Amino acid sequence: MKENNIVNSEDIKQSADKMAKELVRISESMEFDEEALLDMVQETIIPVEQFFANYTCAIMEIETKFKVLNEQFSLIYDGNPIESIKSRIKDYDSIIRKIIKKNLPRTLEAIEENINDIAGVRVICSFEEDIYRLARCLLQQDDITLISKKDYIRNPKPSGYRSLHLIVSVPIFLENEKKDVKVEVQLRTIAMDFWASLEHKLKYKKDIAPEKLEVLTKELVDCANVSASLDSRMQNIRNIILGKSADNYY
Ligand code: 0O2
User: Fold this and answer.
1) Does a structural domain hold residue 79?
2) 249 in any annotated domain
3) 184 has catalytic annotation
4) Is the pLDDT confidence value at 240 over 60?
5) Is the CB of 159 under 6 A from ligand 1?
């Protein structure tokens, strides 16, 4: 999921409008047959719009589930476990890069089948414990199917990246059909999110000298360790406040 590049249904609509305008411009310059142009729009743009609209609906379903859990948890435990939710539809560039990387056929079916993170929902919590509790509650809902789970909190990436990733499928109810749609859910603490945003910026910075990049990469691994330790200490303090036993304290 692209850090700090959250797009929404409005962005998709704008892209589709841009494409439609471009088609009109081409048709004018080439004296296209209007009927042919309309057919082309029906055959190409509308299925693409429907394709992305399905993911937008799936994001709405998952966001609602987390909002409901957040509300319910706030009545049972101390405060709201969720600090924020950021959702996005993967942009065209990233989808195309993935199609090339995975050598996929250029069809919507192949994209739907093989790219699991077109819809992304990122849930940011204060405490690690809430991440696992929210994940458990989401997965036990009977309309949610777990496709895969990657626990980069218990098993961080060599870069230092930590988050809990779930690929789930959720049904959406359209006019005449029910469709299962895949969504990538990333659950993180505020500290994990802060780290990932900074590391993402470094990843996309192309004009850094290799020796400087090496130093910054090591510094980021170190920051990831400090941030993991901070998460764990804060969790322990909360446990003590709540009268629960703290893991690493006494
Ligand atoms: P973008 O542009 O961020 O959306 P796959 O998705 O299966 O092809 P992979 O590597 O198996 O690829 O998936 P993984 O490891 O679950 O990671 C998917 C997403 O997690 C990434 O999206 C990032 O959003 C995030 N992520 C994973 N590793 C890192 C990391 O080291 N640093 C940061 N900042 N984010 C990470 P994409 O696919 O990169 O695309």
Assistant:
1) yes
2) no
3) yes
4) yes
5) yes
User: How many angstroms separate the first and last alpha carbons of the chain?
Assistant: 39
Q: Within a domain: residue 1?
A: no
- Strand 145-151 to 178-189 pairing: unpaired
Q: What is the length of the chain?
A: 250
Instruction: Evaluate if residue 29 carries a pLDDT over 70.
Output: no
Determine if ligand 1 sits within 6 Å of the CB of residue 220. no
pTM to 2 decimals? 0.83
CATH number, position 31: 3.30.460.10
Distance 109 CA to ligand 1 centre (A): 22
pLDDT of 5 > 60? The answer is no
If you take atom 24 of ligand 1, which residue's CA is the nearest one? 1
Overall number of domains in the chain: 1
Sheet holding 145-151, edge to edge: 82-89, 119-125, 178-189, 164-173, 145-151
Active-site choice (61, 128, 184, 199): 184
**Which atom in ligand 1 lies closest to the alpha carbon of residue 157?**
31
pLDDT of residue 6: 43
In a domain, 234, yes or no: yes
Cα 152 to middle of ligand 1, angstroms: 11
Across 77-87, average pLDDT: 90
Residue ranges making up the domain that contains 127: 9-241
**Burial code of 30-64, b = ≥16 C-beta within 10 A, e = fewer?**
eeeeeeebeeebeeeeeeebeebbbbbbbbbbbbe
Average pLDDT score over residue span 153-173 = 97
**Mean pLDDT throughout 164-185?**
96
Q: How confident is the model at residue 250 (pLDDT cuts 50, 70, 90)?
A: very low
